[in-house]
Amino acid sequence: DRVLPDGNYWAVVNEVLGSQNIVFEVFQARFGATCEKWAAENGMTEGCPDDYMVDTTTHQVLTTMNVKWVSVAETAAPGKSYRVAYATLVKLVRGEKTTVPKGFSWTPFPFILRIRNGEVATIDQYWVP
Fold first, then answer.
1. What is the Cα–Cα distance from 79 to 55, expressed in whole angstroms?
2. How far, in Å, CA of 98 to CA of 74, rounded?
3. pTM, full prediction
4. Would you say residue 1 has pLDDT above 70?
5. What are the tens digits of pLDDT across the range 18-75?
6. Mean pLDDT, rounded, of the chain
7. How many other C-beta atoms are found inside a 10 Å radius of the C-beta of residue 64?
8. How far apart are CA 95 and CA 29, in angstroms?
9. Among 91, 115, 116, 128, which is disulfide-ready with 121 (CB 3.0 to 4.6 Å)?
10. Under 8 Å CB-to-CB from 29, ≥6 apart: which residues?
11. Residue ranges of the alpha helices (H) in the chain?
């Protein structure tokens, strides 16, 4: 019910509603130098392993359909992603048959949601080891 401040958020697909909305479980995420600074300010001597940190104390559930295109990560090729329609993502999450690039297989990696002006601006899947 609250508007998220602009920024990047770690998001995990929770479920797909019958209305074709994906429900994301959203957490604050910090990356790179911003993450290292935050870790130091909070006494985290180990810093940010893998160059990011997910703050699970900031938690919210969010649905969205205003984004037409999303990126999905290629499981076998870290750093490689495909641009697909939001409707394709819904089908992938549901396990329904859909057209995907040759050799692509769905993996439920987390997503990075970019919030701008109180709305989801982009949805990009994040490959994690």
1. 23
2. 16
3. 0.85
4. no
5. 777 888 999 988 999 999 999 999 998 888 988 899 988 878 888 887 889 999 998 8
6. 87
7. 17
8. 28
9. 116
10. 8, 9, 10, 52, 53, 54, 55, 112
11. 32-41, 86-94
